[in-house]
Amino acid sequence: MTDITRLTESDARAHLDQFIALLTDTVDHGASVGFLRPLDATLARDYWHEVYAAVARGTRILLIARIGRDIVGSVQLDLAMRPNGRHRAEVQKLIVRSRYRRQGIASELMQAIEREARAAARTLLVLDTEARSGAEPFYEALQWQRVGSIPGFALNTDGVPTPNTIYYKII
Which of 8, 23, 74, 114 has the smallest CB count inside 10 Å? Predict the structure, then answer.
């Protein structure tokens, strides 16, 4: 049974080692989430400290999927804070440990982050993912609408320029 939980900054900081392991496993197994493999633990640690600071500021929502005591997945919602954008947010870093994939955890995390977005009065969500990856059919099955693609938008985990695909969802 998967438990989906929203974490405060202090709760998240207490699990730094698990967050580093989660991100490292995800990147090292090919997920294009902003890092190259092999992922350096110091870089992963610094990234999570940035996330914790955003959670503390109230500009980021951090959810985890837990099985027992193990964090097996995570997703974030970056809240637009400017007056003209307080109706929108960006879904970021949907990640699931490689051995727990294809068990519905990512779908549970996405459903939960949409509930959090509604509770935060956000009606427009956006995200981007690596083009031609397994993520595209996943998001489309969850009723996300494809907007387009930018050639060479990011380097994939092996350092190769790769296009992205941009999606939105009105909730």
Answer: 8
What is residue 31's three-state secondary structure?
coil
Number of domains in the chain: 1
145 exposed, middle or buried (CB, 10 Å; 0-12, 13-18, 19+)? Answer: exposed
pLDDT tens digits, 74-113: 999 999 999 999 999 999 999 999 999 999 999 999 999 9
Long-range CB contacts (< 8 A, 24+ apart) of 95-104? 95/22, 95/23, 95/26, 95/31, 95/33, 96/26, 96/65, 96/72, 97/22, 97/25, 97/26, 97/72, 97/73, 98/25, 98/26, 98/29, 100/65, 100/67, 100/72, 100/73, 103/2, 104/2
Task: For the chain, state the CA radius of gyration.
Answer: 15
pLDDT of residue 1 exceeding 90, the answer is no
pTM beyond 0.85: the answer is: yes
Q: Answer yes or no: is 49 within a domain.
A: yes
Q: Hey, which residues does 168 pair with through a beta bridge?
A: 126, 145
For residue 107, what are the domain limits? 3-123
